[in-house]
Specification:
Blueprint lengths: L9 H7 L7 H13 L9 H21 L8 E3 L6 E3 L2 H12 L5 H9 L8 H18 L4
Helix pairs in contact: 1-2, 4-5, 5-6
Length: 144
């Protein structure tokens, strides 16, 4: 259920765990624990997400473009949570390459990022990890 990266209500989790005799108090305790580890976010209503998706994308495009010249920007806007999503410059450059230059393969992302981060090593490996592990989460957050 949670591995789908789709928003899930605590009530839906309670319903799915009924056969395991999990109580709502136990589920709330677990949710608070996971939230304390910053692995859980509240989401906005579908209407709000729809309303702020385009402005968030426009803002993020501007912020990603700034990654070309420096590392001052440390967050992008999530229309899903209404919060900032922390991303390092390398991750921002990978996203910029994917969104603006049509690069989809890790090798292309790494090649683009190397133009701005010539001192970095293992860019292809990092781009592979980014594509495999981070892009699905960023898509679920409405950032990628």
């Amino acid at each position: 259920m949670l591995s789908s990266l789709e928003p899930v209500s605590l009530g839906a989790i309670e319903t799915s765990l009924r056969s395991a005799d999990a109580t709502l108090d136990q589920i709330l305790d677990a949710a608070l624990l996971v939230a304390g580890q910053e692995q859980l976010e509240l989401v906005q209503s579908d209407d709000t997400i729809s309303r702020v998706r385009k402005p968030s994308a426009k803002l993020n495009a501007h912020l990603l473009d700034a990654a070309r010249s420096g590392d001052e920007i440390e967050h992008l806007a999530s229309p899903v949570t209404g919060a900032g999503v922390p991303l390092k410059r390398m991750q921002q450059l990978f996203l910029l390459a994917a969104s603006r230059d049509g690069a989809a393969q890790p090798e292309a992302l790494a090649t683009f990022a190397r133009n701005f981060l010539p001192q970095e090593t293992s860019l292809v490996e990092r781009a592979r990890d980014f594509t495999r592990l981070e892009v699905p989460v960023l898509k679920a957050l409405g950032v990628a």
